[in-house]
Amino acid sequence: CVTLDVQAACRDPTVTQELLKEGFHRDLLVKVELGEEAGGCAVAAQMRLPPGIYVDPYELATLQQHNLTKAVLFPDVIDVEAPEYLARDLLLLLFLEPDARCSRCFRAAVPVHARYHRPAEGTEEALVVLESPEVLLCCCHSQLSAECWEPAEVDAPCSSDNTGPCQWHSTKHRPAYEESMLRVPVGLREHNSLVCALTLLTTGLCSGLILAAACKYGHF
């Protein structure tokens, strides 16, 4: 009975995430509605990005300079040119801002980019699955319910402007939120021979034109 009472008293946060725009360059919008008031607390969403998607650290730094997005990226050095099969997971801590329309609601958006994938067989797209974020709270001047929240192992400050340590808390009773999927266009393996032949033909033609122009107009 005690367990049931504790679970009933702990209202899980409601988390939604949306991929806005189309193509390889999207905006990831995260919205959180807490089950209790969090006055004076910092609210963040911690998410693990799979190799098929990344956040550009240079773009993120520019957005933070203009106070448009607040986030911490691990690692902070990323090869933005690497294809999906040579990349690795990233950890993003996105600081959420209060939503003026709802006292318990927070939201934030961050630009994300899809990586190029290997050519596939029989399909023209690859699926990148985004797991639901983990909701974190950092409260310096108020106490969180010990039955509902527990200390989280997060080595990050309470805000992107602060360098001091912070004790983050996560909810103990996390529901299974739905995942988001990004569909990335990929090439077909059946077209490998055709693509290689056309590439070789185009390269040879362009090289011939450059060589002809150099012989005609060049001074040797």
UniProtKB/TrEMBL annotation:
Pathway: Glycolipid biosynthesis; glycosylphosphatidylinositol-anchor biosynthesis. Transmembrane segments: none annotated. The keyword Manganese does not apply. Keywords: Endoplasmic reticulum, Glycoprotein, GPI-anchor biosynthesis, Membrane, Transmembrane, Transmembrane helix. GO terms for cellular component: endoplasmic reticulum membrane. It is a single-pass membrane protein. One of its GO terms (biological process) is GPI anchor biosynthetic process. InterPro entries: PIG-X/PBN1, PIGX. It is found in: Endoplasmic reticulum membrane. Belongs to the PIGX family. This is Phosphatidylinositol-glycan biosynthesis class X protein. It comes from Pycnonotus jocosus. The gene is Pigx.
